[in-house]
Amino acid sequence: MPDLASTRLAAHEMAARLRAGSVSSRELTEAHLAAAEAGNHALNAWLVIDRDAALAAAAAADARIAAARADGSAALAALHPLCGVPVGLKDLVTVSGGQCTAGSRILDGYVAPFDAHVTERLRDAGAVIAGKLNMDEFAMGSSTEHSAYGPTANPWDLERVPGGSSGGSAAAVAARHVPLAIGTDTGGSIRQPAALCGIVGLKPTYGRVSRYGIVAFASSLDQVGPLARDARDAALLLHAIAGRDRRDATSAPVPVPEELLALPASDDEAAASLRGVRLGLPREYFVAGMEPGVEARVRDAVAAFEAAGATIVDVSLPHTEYGLAAYYIVAPAEASANLARYDGVRYGHAVRGGDVLGSYLASRGTGFGPEVKRRIMLGTYALSAGYYDAYYLKAQKVRTLIKGDFDTAFAAGVDALVAPTSPFVAWPLGAKLADPVAMYLSDACTLPVNLAGLPGISVPCGLSDGLPVGLQLIGPAWSEARLLALARAYEGVTAGAPWRRLEPPGLVAIDPAGPTPARRAIALPGGHHR
Ligand code: GLN
User: pLDDT digits over 442-471, tens only?
Assistant: First the structure.
């Protein structure tokens, strides 16, 4: 059994040791693969752990680092910090020659013929792709219970959800199977699972990261971003994947800030940067139904910012309450169009049903799960003749009002907004499965940010009932470096807090022949999973 101690390192610590020659990428990769292989039955976070490809990438990274070392310190410094560092990908990012299920049966058997932009960028950096991570089917969900490949468990409590839809990514990072993972966020799917698993998750500005090679859910809302255990690591991963790509017309020609590679190492230096910062506290984000423990932790965090020299101003984002309704028109409408391509001919799962229409209906009828069918029906209805004006057009107008609320707040001179990420901590598996609207409510604080195209980050801010709570920071477009610096400052301010040292319990022995703990939990009365 390889030494698992290195799985406790942050990616930036791995980068320093790789350069110093005190560890090899092979050793790091072996340790992380071993952790993932040993822990995956308990979590069901990974759909594929790609040992052979990971070890080949590690060998290539070690060779690159050795060659750079021979060329001198400038060559070593020019390597990307992620060279040799293991990374997991949500299973909607294509990797040439590999599976890309998007958590759906309808993509079962599909083999991607090309690399996504983010995959290419990670390969260029020399990162080690360790495998593909579980997710809600087509990223529709907030709990990873809508995966056709079984639910993922939360490493803090195996009978609770990890959040979603990037629940596999968040669980794998929290459980130290990888220091970093890629997720996507359409309405909260990076930030909310990061919050529920006690890690950092950043949704970049719309257009910051190319969506080329990402299975589409709602194209005007989807963004790719990092999940990590601290702000510095999230910044390194964002740096590797961000930037203009001709193959995605919505990817913006905005330079990638080099500050992402230079967040302060010192807690005191980071904390000192808070003096003079103005943070807005949007009153509408303390939504009805929010758990008191969540609200208390978020208010503690706000007090910590203030004590460190930030000014807190009350702000109002008056159209927040319409965000959920607008999102659940716009996102299903776009999804219904995007998912029309799964016809049983071109991709994966195919069922023959007599004539062409019969095969189409049989393939889609058996290939899509219930939540995806619900979204396709909602979206098709909202776009249909006679209802388009009443629903879709109205929702787009509301979207403009929501964006206007943020513009007004930032124009009034606040640097960023502070808010809860999720109104709840991780809930028991199965608890919200039978009530889609209860599930949708868990994104009330994240989806306005997608509707406005803005960046948002969730950082851990303590525990409630022993479970992680996430603090959300929202900034103007292209302010990722600023948000990460604020997140780093908050880490500095709270460096001495006892909760900072708490982490998910270690591996528990799970009989690999039996059902995963999450499957067992959902099969309890009240659950209705396939
Ligand atoms: N939970 C939201 C939904 O189900 C958001 C999902 C996401 O961000 N991909 O649509």
Answer: 999 999 999 999 999 999 999 999 999 999
Q: Does residue 424 fall inside a structural domain?
A: yes
Residues 132 and 269 in one domain: yes
Residue range(s) defining the domain that contains residue 375 = 322-398
Q: Name the residue type at position 310.
A: A
363 domain residue, yes or no: yes
Say yes or no: 37 and 102 in one domain.
yes
Verify whether residue 90 is a known catalytic residue: yes
The predicted model scores a pTM of 0.97
Residue 20: its H or E element: helix 11-20
Secondary-structure percent of the chain, ordered helix, strand, coil, rounded to 5: 45, 15, 40
Assess whether 352 and 446 both reside in one domain.
no
Q: Catalytic residue among 142, 169, 189, 251, which?
A: 189
Dihedral pair phi/psi, residue 230, rounded to 5°? -150, 170
> Which residue from 197, 228, 227, 202 is spatially nearest to 426, judged by alpha carbons?
197
Give the count of domains, the chain.
Answer: 2
Backbone angles phi, psi at 346, to 5 degrees: -90, -30
Q: What is the pLDDT of residues 487-516, one digit of tens each?
A: 999 999 999 999 999 999 866 667 777 888
User: Is the shortest distance between the CB of 189 and ligand 1 below 6 Å?
Assistant: yes
Q: Which residues of 432-464 are buried (b: 16+ CB within 10 A; e: fewer)?
A: bbeeeeebbbbbbbbbbbbbbbbbbbbbbbbbb
Q: Using pLDDT thresholds of 50, 70 and 90, give the confidence band for residue 519.
A: confident
| Residue 189: active-site member | yes
On whether residue 442 sits in a domain, the answer given is yes
Please state the rounded mean pLDDT for residues 82-97: 98
Reported confidence tier of residue 530, pLDDT bands at 50, 70, 90: very low
The CATH number linked to 58 is 3.90.1300.10
Q: Do 391 and 415 belong together in one domain? A: no
DSSP H or E segment with residue 268: helix 267-272
On whether both 190 and 307 belong to a single domain, the answer is: yes
* One domain, residues 286 and 327: no
Local confidence band at 64 (pLDDT 50, 70, 90 cut-offs): very high
Query: Is the CB–ligand 1 distance for residue 462 below 6 Å?
Result: no
Rounded distance between C-alpha atoms, residue 251 and residue 249, angstroms? 6
Query: What is the DSSP secondary-structure string of 399-456?
Result: HHHHHHHHHHHHHTT-SEEEEES-SS-PPBTTTTTT-HHHHHHTTTTTHHHHHHT--E
In the residue annotation, 273 being an active-site residue is answered as: no
Domain for residue 530, yes or no?
A: no
- By mean pLDDT, which of 271-280, 346-355, 463-472, 507-516 is the weakest? 507-516
